[in-house]
Structures are given as structure tokens and as C-alpha cells.
Amino acid sequence: MIEVLQHDVVVVGGGGAGLRAAIAAVEADPRLSVALVSKVYPMRSHTVSAEGGAAAVAREDDSLEMHAWDTVKGSDFLGDQDVIQYFVEQAPIELALLENWGCPWSRNEDGSVATRAFGGMTTKRTWFATDKVGFHMLHSLFQHSLRFDRIVRYDEHFVSKLLVEGGRVQGVVSLDIRSGAVSAILGRAVILATGGAGKVFPFTTNGNIKTGDGMALAYREGVGLKDMEFLQYHPTGLPGTGILITEASRGEGGYLRNKDGERFLVTRDYGVGTKAELGPRDMISRAIIREIAAGRGVDGPYGQHVWLDLTHLGEDKINSRLPFVRELSTTYAFVDPVHEPIPIRPVAHYMMGGVDTNIDGATPLPGLYAAGECACVSLNGANRLGSNSLTECLVFGARAGRKAVEYALGAGAPDEARARSVTEAEAARLDALRGSARGEEKIPRIRDEMNRALEAGCGVYREQASMALACKELAILQERVPRLRLSDASRVFNTELVAALELQNMLDVAEAIANAALARKESRGAHACSDHPARNDAEYLHHSLVTRSAEGRPVVGRKAVTLGIWEPEERKY
Amino acid sequence: MSGRETKTFVVTRFDPDRDEAPRTERYEVPVRDDWKVLDALNYIKDEIDPTLSHRWSCRMAVCGSCGMQVNGEPKLTCKTALREYGSTVEVAPLANFPVVRDLVIEMEGFLDKLQAVRPWIIEAKDAARREGTHRQSPEELEAFKKFSMCINCMLCYAACPVVANEPDFLGPAAIALGHRYNQDSRDHGAGERNQVFRGEGGVFACSFANECTEVCPKHVDPGYAIQEAKLLNVIDWATSFVVPRGKAR
Amino acid sequence: MKTLLLRLEPVIWPLFGAGMMVAALAYPGWLLVVGLAEPLGVLSPAALSYERALGLAAHPIGRLVLLLVIALPLWGGAHHVRHVAIDFGGIARDAWFGSLCYAVALAGSVLAALAVVRL
Amino acid sequence: MSARARIDSMRPKRPGSTRTAPPRMPDLYPTRGRYLPYIAFGSVGLLLMLVGFGILRSVWVLGEHDPAAWRAHLSAYRHPAYIVFHLFAMLAIGWFGLRFFRLFPKTQPPKIGPLRSPPEPVLLAGLRTAFVIATALVAAVLGGAIG
A567 phi and psi, to 5 degrees? Predict the structure, then answer.
């Protein structure tokens, strides 16, 4: 018997954006009941691994306009400038609110919140809590959310389908991973906050749960995925594990050196000018790849890498400002940064693209909202500046929460009968999939081939031929998925079934990335084509929009960019 | 693979649909030199036995989901290097917890205890609507910073003898988190929390084995937090006779 | 009974701490002399003669020190014994066993006071 | 497999939706690894009570104001059983004290009101010197060297 649960707003995803949206919704109207559905316990969300910081104007020598300009320039003029303007205004308010809720921001001597330098930012506006900002933000938000009994949590529930009826969203179908039971969680508005999809790449800073579930859910209901070709490579990730070494290590003065110990960002022209190690991420990642390609990289067990040198900072500064960097390098790279340089290479890190939403976080499908890395409100355009993302989760998580409540109050009650029948069909599909020992395809094989296809096709440097090949390979993989062989027939905590559903989500997202990248014949922000090295504003100053055709194939369209007071100009640092 | 040594993994398995009680299975795994225990578990899942169920996500010891008993000691499997172990490694679910399946434990009991200590900033009753941030000196921050590093991995619950013997004991992580808020200069809820700390299964149930501090992968030192909480609660209890129920801290 | 024990905890815990401190500082010395040196005849006979012992003990400071040295460690010991019992799966009987331990400590403290007064 | 723990250990308020396997005790509990010194430390509590009552008995005999009784009381301690017990108690309580000094700084918050606690190593060293001085003093006073 299918259980149907009634709520007013359903939030999918328990990370920074999801928690902030749920809190904003219950604060907007305390009578409402908010369901927070997450496939892991909220404190495990990948927000926890963010290290560097959260940007917001705090100092006198800074201004909203400068923060906006840095973001627009960083986005290579593809970010919507009205969204960016709203973002910079709300940022200080949101970070102050988080401080009131207990977030232990690092402090200046006079007790005010300290800020530090970050890539692409002209002044010091990145708030930090040593180098574990995401962790402190997530735990502060989660602990703050515990005081609201109107937030009903569905922990370790996997949302496998959106319930869409009469042209609007009315809830989700959710699989309780613990018991294997499938239920319908109804709500007059649904907010997707499931984060990015880093796991489509073999070498990524992202955790195992970053499989683009929310993007795939929206994509399958006809909602477009915007700017999917823009995938940020973070310059400093540990080879092998892909663990992130925060940009703050460069913000605190770390140097990048090639095999000869040369600070190549200073001695050679990679377009970062005097900013050197503090240039924007896309440019520094490209500089490292070109250093390695020029044969000045260092050999290691996981291929070539360069060095991140912190030895000149001294033990005290590293322990006080970068304790987590030291812990990670000693534990995972077996290197103590106080005495030796850390091996690093560019690693897939963040997706600028996501579910197409407007400034309110609303998608074209009525009742469906999205926020955080999962969404593309298009704050980041073609390249995100470090430390804007955590603030984006708060600013647009809150806005999506409030706007979803406004919409829910005006919307009619969900159609329970229809929801029950759709959920029963979905439950049958999942039962058939669980332990379906008929097929012969294995999850890890398809996953590895998808990873290889995307790494080759959509790496730091791309070409039309390699992207076209990736599209073809991914299309073939899509046909192999229905023949998946699952051998775990148990209903209780079946992680193989969850992995199969996640694989399907990743393939949909991967196809959107590859096809959107193929359609953009220019270089802009994180999308660098060796066969189209120049930025072409005349033909490509627009968002890409991938929608799913009736036959399930990705179709690449366009969407206008909302320009503002700044005209596109050449991006020089 | 490049010169890979083989290690035997003795993994505890349990599936309520099939097993009356937990059983163990042996897996031969070709391990790389820099692998952690989690890498081996994921190899077993991908290559040998896809029915193995375990929780994991960040693989960088910050999300707290992969705590298990490794050779009898509670460890974060993503942080435990295989180099430190011989040819046989035993992996079992965390001690003191009901087991849902294979290496997955029941976490709701822990969340009940977390909720009980009211781990959120409690404003003073008459606090005006605040604009902007509080002032907090680095020294005030230092008073509670260490206790805010807890990633809820529950290794301390798996090691604590009082958790094993006294079901309603709040436990190390929950008390450390409650204490974190009591010590936060922005919080005024110490009076409320201390009622819980002095209640059933409160701080005084702790017999200071200090195992929680020994096994904590994030150096939160919950043992210290609990003893500090005991002393401050004795002071708070004593002053509550002298000062009527006013500012408790 | 359980709630009574619970309410008394903030009193018992400091006594427990003080008891351990006093025992740690005083008992080794006492045991060395009264338990070993004297019986093995190492001391000069006058050291613990009746006159000297009574002189020391009956002195006001002597009385106070003896009271503390006897009573406080009893509470420390009682608390430890109670918790070791819990460690061996005794939480169910803790209500009465814990109370018994503290009752013994209380009785010892009262007797100590009497003993010191009648010196 | 370690011993079974209490069936209700870490049991949630609302029963879970599936049958769970019972919790296990920590593998090394109670008498292996670091648990052994912890249990031993707790068990010395019994010694504290015994020695405490021993001193009480001595003071009680002294309070009889009967020199003969006092001399008989002291001579009773010459029995080998007493000597072995007192030797064991002295060593055990000495070990107990040193371990207690390692735990004691953990009970000191950085600040109690205006007072600031000394850093841990200083406190630890202070406690150990106090131990040596106190033991020497007690031995000297009782042994007749002073007072």
C-alpha cells in the first residue's frame, strides 16, 4: 500500500541551499509544514567539504559595486547582471544571519568578522572559519533547523521522480532507502537543492553523493538545463583521490611551482597578470595544464602534477589559518606542507550550469523551484569566483524558500488520487529494477566508461572532435543502461539500487554537458576550445539550454543573457 | 595493477530479509599502497559482491558517514590507511549501535540525543532584533571552537563504556555540542541546557574513561568538554541557590 | 531513589574529586609509615607511641586533617565503586547499589567525626 | 565477534521500520586495551574506602585513651597479610594518584569567571610536585622526623 504524505512545501536535498530554503519557508509562514527530503542525513551533504570561504562585502574599502563587477568579469559576461546585483546586496545580510545562528566565523582582534583574499576578488571579502567554512555553515544551518518542528525531515529518502499533474508540480515520489518502501510526498511547491554532478567525472573533488539527481529529475519533466558546458576545474586537487586543497592556501600566500621550482604564473604570461596565484580558477587551471603539456610537470603515481608550495608560510600560519589543508595533505598525500610542497593538479570541482531558473529560483514548470549548485540562476555564468558558491546557496536558497511559499499559498491542493497511481507505477518500476538479475551490464563498467568519455571530451581543453565523440559514446551508454544487472534483491538499505538510479541521473546530466559543450564554438570562462580559442560575443553571448526531446534525446537551444550596466569587454587581469 | 599486495577482509554482513543474525564473509582484495579501508570496501562492492552495503560520501574525513569498527577499534574508514594493517583486516559495524544492514547502523538514537541538548543559539529573552553580526573576540571564539569541530561520526559513542551500559546517557558528541553552545559568547541558553545536562543520563553519568577523546578523528576532545560541563554545572547548581534563576552563566 | 541520586550529583561529584585528591596526596605516605615502616620496625619506637600519636591527633589541626583524610576519600571511593558496578552492566540495580555506596560513605563520615571529637 | 551489548543500547525513541541486529559491545571492553586501566582506576575506589575505614579504626582506637589497646592495634599490623595488603594499597593508590593527575587538568575550564587556569603541562607538573611533597611531609610527620 503506497503511503501518501501531505506537506505544503517539499525541499529535495539537505545541504546549504536545501536547509536554508526550508528555514526560509517555515519562517515565511509558520503555519506551513515543510518536508526536507534528503538521500543522506543532512550533515553528510557535500556542502560539508567546502573549505575556502563565503564572499560578502564587509570592509569599508569594499563596495557592492566592486563585488558585482568582479563577479560579472569572472563570469566572462555570461552571468545575468540583475541576478548578480541582487546577490551582492543580499550576501552580507545572509552571512550576518548565519553568524547570528552560531556560525563560528574567524575574527579580527576587534571582534569583527575577518575576511581574506580569494581568486578573482579585488579586495578581501571572503568570510572564513579557518579552512572548514562549508562544514561550519552546514552544521550551523542543520543545528538551527532542529529548532523548527514544522520542518519534517525524511532522511535517507531517495527522490526518484517528480509528481507533475495539470502542468504543475505537486510533490515527489520518494524511496525510503532504509525500508525499501516507496511513498508519495505531496506539496504545492517543490524546491530542488541536490547540488552538482561532479561524479560524472573520474577525477573530482566532489563526494559520492554528487550525482546530479535534481538536475535529472527536472530534465526528465521537460525543464531545461542551462549553461551545462561550463564546468569549473579547481586548480589544486590532490592527484588520485581528487581531494580539494582550498584556494585559501594560495590566498594565504602559497606558490605554484613546476618541476624546476619555477613560479610559472609569475615568470610566464598565462593571462593572470600581477594576480599570479590569485587569478581566477579557469585561467590557473589552464596554466597548469599547459605547464604539464610543455613537459615541465612532475611524474607521480597518478600521472603528471605540479607543486603547491606552502613551506615559506611557516608552521604557525599554516596551523592557525590552514589546519585542514595540513591534515588532508599529510593523511591523503603523505606530505606535510610545512616542510614539503603538495602535489596538485586541476580537478573537476563545480558546475556553473544547472536547472534553468529565474531570479526567484522558479523554473519554467509552475511550482518547481531550484537553488544552489543544482540550479543555474546564472549568477556564475561561464566561470564562478571562489567563495561565491556558499553565499549563493544562502541567498538563493532563502529566496527560493520564500517564493515557493508565496506560490504554494496561491496554488490549489495536489490531486492525491493521480499522485497515488503515478507512485504505484514508479514503485513497480523500482521493484522490477531491484535485484533484476536478467541484464548483463554492470554499474561500475558503465560508470567508468561515462567518466572516461567525459574526461576525454570535456576536459580543461576541448575540441569539436573530442566533444562530438563524447556525445556519441554517451548516447550508446544510455542504451546499455536498461540492460543493467543488479544482484542485490534485498529491500533494506539497498545501495546497489540507489547506485543504479544515480547512474541514470548522471548519464542524463553527462549528455547535457557534452551536447551543450559541442554547440558552443568559442572559448569563454571555463569552456576552453583549442580549435576556437577566441571569445565570440557576436554569436555566443547567450546561455545554452538543453531540453529533452520526446524520444529522450538532448536538444541544445539558447536563452538570452540579462546584460546590465557593464558592457562585455576583454577579460584581462 | 602496479605490484598490488592482496589483503583479506573479514566483513560483517547482515540482511534482515535473509539473516537471523550477523555473519562474516572473507574477501581477497588487491590493494594499492596508498589505499584506505574505504577504498577496499568500494572495490569489494564494485568488483566482488555488489550486495555489500555501507555508508560513505566525502572520502576526506569531513562528512562523518563512514565510521566502522576496524580490527575492533572505531575508525573513519576513509581516513584509516591500509598500510597500518597486516594481511587480514576485520571490518564490522560500529559497536553499541543497532545494525540496520551489513555495515550500516541505526542513527536515529544519536539524533534523538543531539536534539535533546538544544544545539542552537538561544537568544536572551529580551534580545532586540539584531542588525549585523555580534562582536566576538578571538579569545571568546577559542573557548568553544574545538567543540564545534564534531562531524557527528559517532566513533565516540562506539567507544564509550557508559553509552554501552546506560541507554539514556546523552553521550560524548551530544554533550560536547551542547557545551559548545553553552560556551559561545553569543548564546544565552546555558540555563536551559544545564537542566538537560543535570537530568537523566546527563553529564554526571560520565565516568571519564576518556575513550571518546582517544578515538575522536577530529580532536574535538569531548572528554574535556564533559568534565568542563560537570564543573560548570556544579557552579551553576550552587549559584542557583544564591542568585535567583537569573543569568546562569 | 533515582531522582534523589540525580539531584545529589552536583554535590557528590565535587566530593568525589576532593576525595581522590586527598587520597592521592595523603594515603601513600600514611600507608608507607603506618602500614609498612612501623610494622617492619624501621621507625624509632617513639614515632607512633601512644603519647605522640594522641598529641598529634588531638591537636585541632590534627582533628580536622584526620576528618578530611578519612571522610573525603570514602566519597571518592563510593562514587568509583558505583560506576565500576555500572560498567559491569549494573545500571538496573544502580538506584539501590549507588545509594548503598553513598550510605556507607556517609556512615563513615559520621563515624569519622565522632572518632575525631572523642580524641 | 565481541560480546552482545544491551538490547536497548542507542535505541531510537521511535522504533525503526526494519528489524535490526542487536548492538555489540566495544571489542576490547571491559578488560582489554585502554579499558583495563580505566576499570583498574575505578576499582582502586574500593581500596580508598578500605584504607579510609582503616584510618578511622586507628583513630577510633586512639580515642579509647588506652595505651595498651593502641600498642596492640599497631602490633596487629605486623601480620604478613596486613603488610602485603598495605604494600599493595600503597602502590595501587600511588598509580591511581598519578593517573588522576593526568585527568585532573581536563576538568579545568580555561577560565572560571576572572580566574584563568594554568596551562595543562604547568598544572600537571604542579600536581606531581605536590604529590612528592605531601607524601614526604606525611611520612615525616608520622615517622617522627617533624612535629
Answer: -85, 145
Whether residue A105 and residue B119 make contact (CB cut-off 8 A), yes or no, is no
For D123-132, how does the pLDDT look when each residue is reduced to its tens digit (9 = 90+)?
999 999 999 9
- Cβ B148–A96 below 8 Å, yes or no? no
pLDDT score recorded for residue B245: 55
Would C82 be classed as within a structural domain? yes
Query: Residue D62 domain-assigned?
Result: yes
Kindly report the pTM of this predicted structure: 0.95
In a domain, B249, yes or no: no
Neighbours of chain B (3+ CB pairs under 8 A): A, C, D
Grid cell for residue A291:
605547464
Rounded to 5 degrees, φ, ψ at A552 are: 90, 15
- Cβ atoms of residues A480 and B43 within 8 Å: no
What are the grid coordinates assigned to B144, written together?
A: 568553544
CATH at residue B117: 1.10.1060.10
- The answer to whether the beta carbons of residues D116 and D110 sit under 8 Å apart is yes
Closest residue by Cα to residue A345 from A292, A384, A279: A292
ipTM, 2 dp: 0.94
Question: Does residue C39 belong to any structural domain of this protein?
Answer: no
Residues in chain B: 249
Residues B96 and B136 in one domain: no
Residues A238 and A387: their CA atoms lie apart, in Å, by 20
Enumerate neighbours of C (3 or more CB pairs within 8 A).
B, D
User: Domains in chain D: how many in total?
Assistant: 1
| Per-residue model confidence as pLDDT tens digits over B167-186 | 999 999 999 999 999 999 99
Question: Which of A44, A168, A234, A535 is labelled catalytic?
Answer: A234
How many whole angstroms separate alpha carbon A225 and alpha carbon A160?
A: 18
First to last CA, chain B: 60
A140: in domain: no
CB contact under 8 A, D97 and C73: no
A449 contacts in B (CB within 8 Å)?
Answer: none
pLDDT band at B248 (very low <50, low <70, confident <90, very high): very low
- Find the mean pLDDT for residues A106-129: 91
Start-to-end CA span in chain A (Å): 62
Beta strand A368-370 with A189-192: parallel, antiparallel or unpaired?
A: parallel
Residue A289's domain comprises 235-347
Percent of chain B with pLDDT over 70: 95
Q: Does residue C33 sit within a domain?
A: no
How many structural domains comprise chain A? 2
The parent domain of residue C105 ranges over 2-22+50-117
Q: Domain range spanning residue B185?
A: 108-242
Residues 395-454 of A with CB under 8 A from B: 442-444
Residue A312 annotated as catalytic: no
The pLDDT assigned to A523 comes to: 93
All residue ranges of chain D with pLDDT < 50 are none
Distance from CA of B198 to the nearest CA of C (A): 7
CATH no. for residue A527? Answer: 1.20.58.100
Question: Chain C residues with CB inside 8 Å of B167's CB?
Answer: 91
- Domain CATH number, residue B19: 3.10.20.30
Q: What is the pLDDT of residues A186-220, one digit of tens each?
A: 999 999 999 999 999 999 999 999 999 999 999 99
Does some domain include residue B36? yes
**Model confidence at B38: pLDDT above 50:** yes
Domain assignment of residue C37, yes or no:
no
Domain CATH number, residue C72:
1.20.1300.10
Q: Both B98 and B112 in a single domain?
A: no
